[in-house]
Specification:
This protein is of the alpha/beta class. It is built from 26 helices and 12 strands.
Length: 688
Amino acid sequence: MPKSRQGDPPSERSTLLGSDGKAEIINEDVEGSEKEEIQLDATEDVLLSTEKQEPQSFRSLRSLRPVKWAEDRGLFRRFANWFVTWFIPRLIYYVPILEWIRSYTFSSFLSDLIAGMSVGVMLVPQGLAYASLARVKPIYGLYACFTPLLVYVVFGNSRQLAIGPEAMIALLTGTNAVSLLTQTSRDVNEDQVVILVLMLSFMVGCLNLLMGIFRFGFLDNILSKPILRGFITAVAILIASEQIDIFFGFDLPDYHGYAKIPYIFNHSAEIQPIALVMGILSVIFLYGVGLLKQKTKNKSFWRWLTYIPEILVVVLLGISITALAGLHKKGLEILGTFSGGLPIPQIPEFDLNDMSLLFQPAIIISIVGFVESIIVARVYATKHNYSVSANRELVALGLANIIGSCFGAWPCFGSMARSAVNDRAGAKTPMAGLFAALIVMVAILFLLPVFQMLPKVTMASIIMVAALALIETEEIRFLIKIRAIKDLVLTALTLLVTVILGVEVGLTTAIILSLFFIVKQSTMPTVTLRSRIPDTEQFHDLKVFKDINIFDEKKDWFYKTVDQKGFMILRIEDSLYFANISSLKALLRKLEQASQTPLSAVVLELKNVTNFDTSALQVLKEIVEEYHERHVSVCLVKLKPENQRLFFSSGILDLVGTDHVFSKTNDAISFLEGTLTGPYSSYHHMIV
């Protein structure tokens, strides 16, 4: 057979058989007398020659060329093929804008424009307010509303998710930055806090990016919903408690959370009525409008209420009343002057000691922020019938925070409230984030003097309402309704630990509890005890075991683990591996001990077992050997074909015997009873 050169498509070559028996491949794309033919021999390398035979010396000189023209062309085609078939699909996968921008329409543009403006007018006051939680200057709150949004437009794959500063993440970031300065005996000033906040933001972004690249998207399932609900509720309480002093006209930076309450009571004579009244009225307005929107969202006549930016309205009212009535001269604290301008890009300062101390908080923030974001993204993906990838979201959030940290932004993730506004306003693509960022940019460049008269108590009311929105009682009511006592206890425990001992300890507790139950669940395979219905070929389930505690003498199945003929029938529901095989062995022993009938045979249904690892095979072999030593037969039923070779190689089939391997449970029982007739349905035919 003649060989063909790799890289040249057949469409551009024709093969002729020469008189000397060699295959001559003529390049048809070369014009006139300059055609070249490639002679290929079955035992020799490619020899390039022209139609006119050249002397051997010239051919030797030609062979010294490092890259022949034909080979260079083949190399280029291979590169082009790799670029088109491998690189481009992956580029589109991680840069979704390259995919959806091709079908972007003017209708989508208008919808995204309206949605982006709606979200943008929320972002500006929220960014200013949340800056106090992050312990940085107000301008950094606007920076957090700008660059991350632009990055997510390019890399995000959720069409309705609105990312930006969040109260919970801002609190985690600021608390850890201040805690580090206190721990290392440094002055707690805004410049030092900013350095640590941006460093932490960069670290969070790197962690999210690496988790996305190495496909750690499954981490959104690491926290159970009851534990996560307890933690979020506790954080909401802490966020709200941080605003109490501002509502009463105090500024207590040295007191945190519920520790502020005794101070306020002891100094009740210093309470400012103006701040208290304005704060209460702002909360009532924000909460009332939000509730009204929720009640009328499905009524077409009141649909216009959706577009009322209540946060912006309360900010403008607060600024106007303060300026017109001169309340700042009567003791009401206002935001005051602060420098502005677009952020100048610069890489955050790094200190290895600080990075090592911030590593654990960075992990916590990256996981919590991602979990909250992916939950929101999936809600709207389901609503609008498209899919989101957790790994792609990790990459997008990681890049948004890495680049954002270079432009003065603390860690930013998805927001449930802003995403709801984004969706109700009609967002069709991530392009809505671009228009929201443009609103923020206008505020940074031109509107900062307007916000100088913004009362701090108005910002505190915005934060208070955002915190109260995190407290969802629906899940608690559901747990009570189904009497999930264990989950209720876990929710309460996580909440109390977080409120009393702090956010870091609370989240660490939540993660440890979740991992504990994940490991506990994985160390016990689900096993179903079965029994044959008398005088039939049908079987029914007696008991499903999810742990090895079977001592329940009040149940009818307890003394029926082995039937009257000494048969114990079990269906294994999960894959068997090193973590759960020992529990299976212990369960088999306890089931046998619970029976009043001597055991004569064990029938294992394996149709639901997809995988066995080496540890499981070794222990399973030991189980069979122990049963055989006591003259107990073992039958295997519905062993999957892909696992047959494993059982043969491990020697389990030799121990059990192929005549004890069946495709039906009823055939195994009939075989043990000695009544099996008709076509033999065991796996005698298996090829191993």
